[in-house]
Amino acid sequence: MSQHASRLGLRGRSHTPFGGPSHQRLRRITHLRRPRRIAMLSVHTSPLHQPGTGDAGGMNVYIVELARRLAAIDIEVEIFTRATTGTLPPAVELTPGVLVRHVDAGPYEGLAKEELPAQLCAFTHGVMQAWAGHRPGYYDLVHSHYWLSGHVGWLAAERWGVPLVHAMHTMAKVKNAALAAGDTPEPAARVIGEQQIVSAADRLIANTAEEAEELVRHYEADRDLVAVVHPGVNLERFRPADGRAAARARLGLPRDALIPLFAGRIQPLKAPDILLHAVARLLEEQPSLRERIVVPVVGGPSGTGLAKPERLHKLAARLGIGDVVRFQPPVAQDQLADWYRAASVLVMPSYSESFGLVAVEAQACGTPVVAASVGGLPVAVRDGVSGTLIDGHDPADYARALRPFADDPGRATRMGAAAARHAQSFGWDTAARDRGVYHDAMRDRRHLRSGPC
């Protein structure tokens, strides 16, 4: 019997006969009920923040897009997040049917993510205050994102008598097993916290089958309670549009240059330094390439990268490639799509990726990807078709993968067309799949209330 089943008192659930009158009544209720309103929790980063800076990244994009798609199918979403400035209104309508609630918990500024566990009680109090102003049963379900939110979600779901659906996004044990050189491991408190959430959640959402297996292997998750739901991409925003040349003209980039792009948060985990080392190696082998290469790095320092925010600039200078590297602050999603379109290839040498949303966004724009074969990237990238997957993090291997793009400018166009086709399978019909997970969690919660048949 699983820890989850034991906690809920579902002993012998798999042996329950399904033909009795109580089960028939439950089935009728299940068909009639669907989630009307979801409390979504994102404690440490707001869906209103700019992705690519601070702690904002793919998870922010995921939450915003999921909430919008749920609202489009008449499921209201209220997203609770920590207030990071005193000028924020208590609530902001992100889009019709999606409300972002700002919760006061700790000082507005200067609070690192590692310090947030001490503010979870205050955050939970703020969530409970918002709930107290509503009628009983106002929220049908809690969907928490990342382990900090999971602890608030656990308490809220227990208090409200509703299911908890949790998405890990990243896991401490997985990250610690693949640290970049000199990076700081995740603390033991997070490992323990994640284990508690896995035991408490009614459903766990994993981005890939590999992540689902990691939940089972590292955290003893009940396999039957883990649902695999790939993140979606906004295919209306991220698309080839008017092509590479037009995007380069808008961004002031050379029309015929080799442009290997890094896009994302600048921290050791994402390994932008590997791209710089690979470019330096390419230029050693082909000095003439310097006249026609531009290396954009689009994003801001994040996580442990904040300790040395100038580290990558200094590395570029030390490698002698400061003249070809262009550092660009984080940009809005529409402009990010232009950076993808302008690139010859996106490079993702990450040590760990729960999925790799950036890789799918780039491919949707018609740009192939060279990426580390870690986490969800083997799902996001079709090796040899929409891009190239590399085992390990040796810059020489990345230089070798980039060389064909330098030698054959048409390669980016050919692989880019295949990449755009591959990305079409990652559209945001995901919301419907998440809704199915919600239904399952609500069904099991009703089963628990009704008792065995």
UniProtKB/TrEMBL annotation:
What are this entry's molecular-function GO terms? acetylglucosaminyltransferase activity; D-inositol-3-phosphate glycosyltransferase activity; magnesium ion binding
Q: Which family does it belong to?
A: Belongs to the glycosyltransferase group 1 family. MshA subfamily.
In this chain, UDP-N-acetyl-alpha-D-glucosamine is annotated as bound at 50-51, 58, 265, 270, 331, 353, 361
Q: Where is this region: Disordered?
A: 1-25
Q: Which CDD domains match?
A: GT4_sucrose_synthase
| Glycosyltransferase subfamily 4-like N-terminal domain: residues covered | 57-232
Q: Which EC numbers does the record give?
A: 2.4.1.250
In the record, biological process GO terms are: mycothiol biosynthetic process
List residues binding Mg(2+). 340-341, 343, 367
- Tell me the superkingdom of the source: Bacteria
- State whether keyword Signal applies: no
Gene name of the encoded protein: mshA
List the catalysed reactions.
1D-myo-inositol 3-phosphate + UDP-N-acetyl-alpha-D-glucosamine = 1D-myo-inositol 2-acetamido-2-deoxy-alpha-D-glucopyranoside 3-phosphate + UDP + H(+)
Q: How does it assemble?
A: Homodimer.
Q: Where is the Glycosyl transferase family domain?
A: 246-420
Q: Which UniProt keywords apply?
A: Glycosyltransferase, Magnesium, Metal-binding, Transferase
- What's its job? Catalyzes the transfer of a N-acetyl-glucosamine moiety to 1D-myo-inositol 3-phosphate to produce 1D-myo-inositol 2-acetamido-2-deoxy-glucopyranoside 3-phosphate in the mycothiol biosynthesis pathway.
This chain belongs to which protein, by name? D-inositol-3-phosphate glycosyltransferase
First-tier enzyme category under EC: transferase
Q: Which residues bind 1D-myo-inositol 3-phosphate?
A: 44, 55-60, 113, 146, 170, 190
* Source organism of this protein record: Streptomyces himastatinicus ATCC 53653
